[in-house]
Amino acid sequence: MQTAPFLAALEAAVADLRATAQTDFAKLDVALLNQRPAPASWSILECLEHLNRYSRYYNAAFAKALGRPAAATSAEVAYTWLGRKSVDMMRPTNAKKSSTLKHLNPLGSRLGLEVLTEFDQHQARLLELLAQARHTDLNRKAMPVEFFRLLKLRLGEALEFVVVHQQRHLQQAQRVQAGLRVELAC
């Protein structure tokens, strides 16, 4: 896909994520937001806190990468083997469960409404970074992977990885919410 439509699709996805979190979760009581469907499963707030932990790293890394000069191109966004594999693993359509690293796993955390506020702030910042990305080469290797900094992704594939990862966990949070509705209706 060409750079401009690629970034436009990511921007639309992030705007949808932001709107979904605001409309679906902001109206819920903090007790419901912390309710888990099972002891080892994440609550809505734990799903969002997991994304916040990723965003703390990736938004800063994107800003750093975008701060380095690289002429924008209208070329196709290219993928390395690692980039394609990473993006495909995180797609919401991939039903295979992935385990997360301990420092990114919020299970058992005491969480409040500030998680929703932080999530919204990260999404607003990601939209700014996506707008900035229009002026750079998305095919350069610029992004160390959070869990193993020696591995690097191209800027475009890292942006897509973050967005599909967020879509995956927001859908997980929506499934948790749907389960809460069932319990509340009984």
UniProtKB/TrEMBL annotation:
One Pfam family matching this protein: DinB_2
Domain of life of the organism encoding this protein: Bacteria
Record-annotated DinB-like domain positions: 25-173
InterPro entries to which the protein is assigned, alphabetical: DinB-like (IPR024775), DinB/YfiT-like (IPR034660)
Protein name per the record: DinB family protein
Organism: Hymenobacter properus
Taxonomic placement: Bacteria, Pseudomonadati, Bacteroidota, Cytophagia, Cytophagales
